[in-house]
Amino acid sequence: MSGATSKKPRVLKGVVVSNKMQKTIVVRVDRLKKHPKYLKYMKISHRFKAHDEKNEAGLGDIVLIRETKPISKEKRWILAQVLTRAGRTAEET
Q: Which of 8-12, 61-65, 87-91 has the lowest mean pLDDT?
């Protein structure tokens, strides 16, 4: 079994919580998890550092990030698409 298998990259939807670094954004991805005993749903958040080559994502934007090969120590995601801009006009972008 030495054949190369291509794995489909994961795509996550989240909110940009920081864009203070050059070409890097921090995206918060929320999901609901059910507690096994109490059967209550809990909101679980994860923060991912993603590569933003053109610095196009702003604070509060809703974005899609795609898994990729490691870019740095903590960056394993790249910005795929900005879905919704957060309170900015077209002139500011």
A: 87-91
Cα separations (Å) of 13 from 2, 40, 63, 73? 34, 23, 6, 22
Q: Show Cβ contacts of residue 67 under 8 Å, excluding neighbours closer than 6 positions.
A: 9, 10, 11, 76, 77
Coil, strand or helix at 30: strand
Q: Which domains does the chain have, with CATH numbers?
A: 11-84 (2.40.50.140)
CA–CA dist 53, 51 (Å, integer): 6
Q: Coil, strand or helix: which one is 7? A: coil
- Give strand pairing partners of 79: 65
pLDDT 10s digits, 8-59: 899 999 999 999 999 999 999 999 999 999 999 999 999 999 999 999 999 9
Looking at the DSSP assignment, which residues form a beta bridge with residue 11? 66
